[in-house]
Design a protein that fits this description.
Chain A: It comes from Pedobacter antarcticus 4BY. The complex is a heterodimer of chains A (about 525) and B (about 350). Chain A has about 525 residues and is of the alpha+beta class. Chain A has 20 helices and 23 strands. In chain A, helix 10 packs across helix 11. Chain B is α/β, with parallel strands linked by helices and about 350 residues long. Chain B folds into 2 domains: about 190 residues, Ribonuclease Z/Hydroxyacylglutathione hydrolase-like (Metallo-beta-lactamase, Chain A, 4-Layer Sandwich); about 130 residues, Rossmann fold (3-Layer(aba) Sandwich), CATH 3.40.50.12650. In chain B, the strands form 3 sheets. A 7-stranded mixed sheet of chain B has the order 7-8-9-10-11-18-19, with helices on one face. In chain B, strand 18, helix 9 and strand 19 form a beta-alpha-beta unit. The longest helix of chain B has 17 residues. The chains are: A alpha+beta (about 525), B alpha/beta (about 350). Bound molecules: zinc ion (2 copies). One zinc ion (ZN) binds next to loops of chain B.
Chain lengths: ~525, ~350
């Protein structure tokens, strides 16, 4: 446990990716071999069954620390994390042990089925032999929610580096079915439980944003224009009778989209497609907010499959008849892609992403205005002679996005964050009008210059109406234009709507609070996206 | 007439006709310590501990009308017996003891009970009523012994040296900076920002024993800084100069670093829970030792701490003050210091 606690400490003691990577590589080079698969399982969200309920854990911690319930609640509110609150609030441990992580996890699993008294004895005894940092980890092990800002991508990169193995192989391996109590670290790295020879993906080709005028790109007929869809960019790999769907985050998402499983039977072996996973209903692409409801779920209900059916819009072909065709020009790849699509027996689910026909840049600019109505983010421009590059390369592919949505809001809260002691108020909450009321619509952090932040800061200090811990309620006076990418229905928000990627576009010093947008405006905007 | 009243200008002693740590200009400001939220510019006269005087002069101007007292010496102000007692918070910090017709009140300003080796150790003072801060008045705040924290900082510095990184510690110029200097100077040279250097000069002149440090000037090479430890106040933490340092590792020294969210939010590389305020147990211990019948709770977790005191049988009430932001030296104070 001590080595693992040290790893967590190192990961939290730097906000630089390279340091974190080095900490992980160091850990996997030196840690107890038996612990390693458990750590990989923890960091990739493989959850064991919860052996003790949150309510009990909380009750025992409150008892042990001899404080009233309300004070525990107050502390929890201030810390924002239950495992951490408990770790901080318990009396100091009376003994010290260094039981390996795998043993703690196994012992916790064995609590399932025992009586509450037996569980209590075990947990209290554990708390009494762990320091604050270790207790925090132990509490996280009970809850199973071990998220500490390590993406599976970063973990995979570290494992790849440590074992000198290709990272896509490792990703495939850890996304597969395995049990940390049955597999060794070496087996996991080698992927003995999966066939990693079939799954490996290509790096995605990415586009730069078009800042200049489209006219500067030369002749329109040298370019292929497509809609820029707002879904999950995906790569579909079919080899040796197996199908794999990779997301751009280089995670395997095959199981999340059963609608696409028919491709396993219908795509020829040795085919790799690039495209976008989208929610498509009656032939129309739905906004991202709809697709979002399908994401990151362990199981997908029949209802969801009916309500939010998913499709795949194909952009490109990377492998054809088991041959890498990325160096062939786009025009040739597109022709082969059309051929492959024709041969699919199941129609209307995996389809070609349409090519936009246009004569001039002016015409295309006009078509681009319709992007919103298509639930698209704008237009992609790809040179017909271009190869499929690895990553981002300037010149061949451009994304010509439409501008984000904007609304005018008024600032109602300002906060210095949970640490309470940063120099300035930099987190703001914004509201729109709902009749006579102001209703919270977004929180945003960035977007102001240092000078503006200082100005807002001094406004907050002079105009704070109430203090709630670190939060200041301020006079609703400052108007800000908030930019965002979309709207979704949200039960958690009082407004019933939530903004996607809200950020401060600018401070509207020219406007007064009476001029801000209303909830009705936003509802109309939402309806127009459906 | 009560011995103290809480007014819109600050804590007032009506019999003595003076204020303690007022936030609006008054005739006489009895001052607990030199942090910006406890002492403001513009009072007609100041009374503070001998060692707070150089701090006030640095911060508020050399022509400031300051009278001083050593710890423990009692004087009479309009019939009220006034004496200063160590608060252990920062150099020169004092609890103000007031006595009139047998009634004793202690206004503690900010305090910590652990001896930091540089500020005179906290001394409990028996009283009838006690005014206490509550900055860390929640049971999640339990400090580790300072030697352990310094060991942690020292290891961190060594790791940074190994990795060719510059160690930049972010600490308040009055209090934390001197503690770090005292405890880390044996390890390697310490480079301090001008605001800290100016303060140290004043303190050394007044007789405080501080190890030698080097003032950061534009001429000092970035590579030289890497060999040592750099200490800067929080106002500079996100500044241009910090960004110009290549491969700097930043470590914030503050009680708020006890909580992960506090560390994350400040986006430093490391956080060290080193504080000049009492932790939960420290607050309770100090309050018990005063034997006070009545406690007035100021800045911090005022509501929960007051509620808890009442539940354990100590009569307490919440008091609204303007204290509690001392540690947020604004960029302006820092520039003023530079010019001073
Ligand atoms: Zn202070
Ligand atoms: Zn204070």
């Amino acid at each position: 446990m001590k080595r693992f606690a040290q790893l967590i400490h190192e990961l939290e003691n730097s906000n630089k990716t390279n340091d974190k990577l080095a900490a992980l590589v160091g850990y996997f080079s030196t840690a107890n071999d038996k612990d390693k698969p458990y750590v990989i399982a923890l960091f990739t969200g493989k959850k064991p069954r919860r052996p003790v309920s949150t309510a009990l854990i909380r009750e025992w911690a409150t008892q042990l620390s001899q404080i009233p319930d309300w004070l525990f609640a107050e502390s929890y509110h201030s810390v924002g994390d239950l495992s951490e609150t408990i770790a901080l609030i318990l009396p100091p441990a009376s003994k010290q042990t260094d039981k390996p992580l795998n043993q703690w996890i196994t012992e916790l699993a064995q609590l399932n089925g025992q009586t509450d008294e037996e569980k209590k004895t075990f947990i209290l005894d554990a708390w009494d032999q762990l320091n604050t940092k270790e207790r925090f980890i132990f509490n996280k092990l009970i809850s199973g929610n071990f998220r500490i800002g390590i993406s599976s991508k970063m973990l995979v990169n570290a494992l790849a580096k440590q074992s000198d193995t290709d990272s896509s192989k490792i990703m495939h391996s850890i996304m597969g079915k395995w049990d940390p109590s049955e597999i060794t670290y070496t087996e996991l790295i080698e992927g003995v439980h999966v066939n990693t020879d079939s799954s490996w993906p290509y790096p995605f080709c990415l586009a730069y944003a078009l800042e200049a005028e489209a006219d500067n790109l030369g002749q329109p007929q040298e370019w292929q224009a497509e809609w820029k869809w707002d879904g999950i960019r995906g790569q579909i790999v079919k080899r040796n009778g197996e199908l794999f769907i990779w997301s751009r985050g280089e995670e395997l998402v095959t199981a999340q989209f059963p609608e696409l499983s028919f491709l396993m039977d219908e795509l020829p072996d040795g085919t790799v497609l690039d495209g976008e996973i989208l929610s498509v209903k009656d032939g129309k692409v739905q906004p991202f907010s709809i697709l979002q409801q399908r994401l990151n779920r362990k199981t997908i209900s029949k209802n969801q499959l009916n309500e939010i059916p998913v499709g795949f819009f194909m952009y490109d072909l990377l492998e054809y008849k088991a041959k890498d065709v990325r160096e062939q020009p786009l025009s040739e790849r597109r022709a082969l892609l059309e051929e492959i699509t024709m041969q699919l027996k199941t129609k209307d689910i995996a389809v070609l992403s349409p090519v936009i026909t246009y004569e001039s840049w002016t015409e295309l600019a006009e078509i681009r205005q319709e992007s919103r109505a298509m639930n698209s983010e704008g237009i992609m421009l790809k040179k017909l002679t271009s190869a499929y590059h690895s990553g981002r390369k300037k010149g061949d592919w451009w994304k010509w996005k439409i501008n984000p949505y904007t609304i005018d809001t008024v600032m109602i809260y300002a906060q210095k964050g949970s640490g309470r002691r940063a120099n300035h108020f930099t987190d703001y909450t914004f509201a729109i009008r709902d009749g006579e009321q102001l209703i919270t619509i977004a929180k945003a952090y960035s977007g102001l210059t240092d000078k503006e932040i200082k100005e807002v800061d001094s406004f907050v200090r002079k105009n704070a109406i109430e203090k709630f811990g670190p939060v200041r309620t301020v006079k609703p006076e400052l108007v800000f234009e908030i930019a965002f990418e979309g709207i979704a229905i949200s039960k958690r928000h009082k407004a019933g709507l939530a903004l996607r990627f809200p950020r401060i576009a600018r401070w509207r010093k020219d406007k007064i609070a009476a001029e801000i947008n209303t909830l009705e405006d936003l509802r109309q905007l939402y309806t127009s996206t459906l | 007439m009560a011995i103290i009243e809480f007014t819109s200008k600050g804590i007032y002693c009506p019999q003595g006709r003076f204020y303690i740590d007022p936030w609006q200009p008054v005739d006489l400001a009895v001052t607990t310590h030199g942090h910006a939220d406890h002492v403001k510019w513009g009072n007609k006269a100041y009374l503070c501990h001998d060692l707070t005087k150089p701090i006030l002069k640095q911060r508020l101007g050399l022509d400031l009308p300051v009278e001083t007292l050593p710890y423990g010496k009692q004087i009479l102000i309009n019939g009220v017996k006034v004496s200063l007692h160590p608060a252990g918070h920062v150099i020169g910090s004092a609890q103000i003891r007031l006595e009139y017709k047998g009634e004793i009140c202690v206004v503690s300003g900010d305090y910590k009970v652990e001896y930091d080796g540089i500020s005179t150790a906290f001394e409990p003072v028996r009283c009838h009523s006690f005014v206490s801060e509550s900055t860390f008045g929640l049971p999640i705040y339990k400090w580790q012994p300072q030697q352990e924290i310094f060991k942690e900082i020292s290891n961190w510095v060594s790791d940074n040296h190994d990795q060719q990184k510059t160690s930049v510690l972010i600490a308040y110029s009055l209090g934390k900076a001197q503690r770090l200097i005292k405890n880390l100077s044996a390890q390697c040279p310490i480079y301090v920002h001008s605001s800290i250097a100016n303060l140290n000069e004043g303190l050394i002149k007044a007789g405080v024993d501080l190890p030698e440090t080097i003032r950061i000037t534009p001429e000092i090479k970035k590579e030289t800084l890497q060999q040592g430890i750099v200490i800067v106040p929080p106002a500079l933490a996100d500044g241009k100069w910090m960004k110009s340092l290549q491969s700097a590792a930043t470590g914030i020294c503050s009680g708020w670093m006890q909580v992960r969210a506090g560390r994350r939010w400040r986006s430093a590389d490391a956080g060290f829970a080193l504080s000049d305020h009492a932790d939960w147990q420290g607050l309770l211990q100090a309050i018990h030792e005063t034997g006070a019948e009545k406690v007035y709770v100021t800045h911090g977790f005022v509501s929960p701490f007051t509620k808890y005191l009442n539940e354990i049988g100590i009569t307490a009430s919440e008091v609204q003050t303007r204290y509690g932001e001392e540690e947020e030296e604004t960029a302006e104070t820092v520039t003023n210091l530079k010019e001073a």
